[in-house]
Specification:
Elements: E1 2-4, H1 14-27, H2 40-47, H3 51-63, E2 67-70, E3 74-77, H4 89-103, H5 108-124, E4 147-149
Antiparallel strand pairs: 1-4, 2-3
């Protein structure tokens, strides 16, 4: 089950943080079609946000075709977003790079800026660099990309 982490200082709307963290979990394979999202009550208890905020995030995920509400049962993952995996070789390389960056004195914001800069430079080279555009979704950076996977509740 996904556990949301809300950063009230980020300047990103709370419902968008929930949407972004859900999308990251989908990209990394931490959530798959059929998985149940936490109930609004569970998210409220864990994060102290308003239930309407959670419901707004879930409605946005439904609008995007990534989730579906089932009356009396909860909200379930309907779609997926990526080919990433929590145990992929790329993730291991990125983790090693992050360790080196920390050892050189870079903080989280410095690393995010450097990574984004390199991605944007790659987008100038088009598909050859593996990127089709330079956009990012404003996702939260950090340990477990702003959320944790709490076991396998399938």
């Amino acid at each position: 089950m996904i556990e949301y982490r809300i950063d009230r200082r980020s300047g990103v709307a709370t419902y968008l943080q929930i949407v972004q963290q859900t999308k990251q979990a989908l990209r990394l394979g931490l959530l798959e079609p059929g998985d149940k999202l936490p109930t609004a009550r569970e998210v409220v208890e864990a994060t102290a946000v308003n239930a309407n905020t959670v419901l707004k995030a879930y409605r946005e995920l439904e609008r995007e075709g990534l989730a579906e509400g089932r009356r009396g049962l909860g909200t379930f993952v309907r779609g997926t977003l990526g080919r990433g995996s929590e145990d992929s070789a790329l993730r291991a390389e990125l983790a090693a790079w992050t360790d080196r960056a920390r050892a050189e004195g870079l903080d989280r914001d410095d690393m995010a800026a450097l990574f984004t800069s390199v991605m944007d430079e790659g987008s100038k080279d088009g598909a050859a660099a593996g990127f089709t555009d330079g956009s990012t979704d404003g996702s939260t950076y950090g340990t477990k990309n702003g959320f944790e996977n709490k076991g396998d509740d399938r």
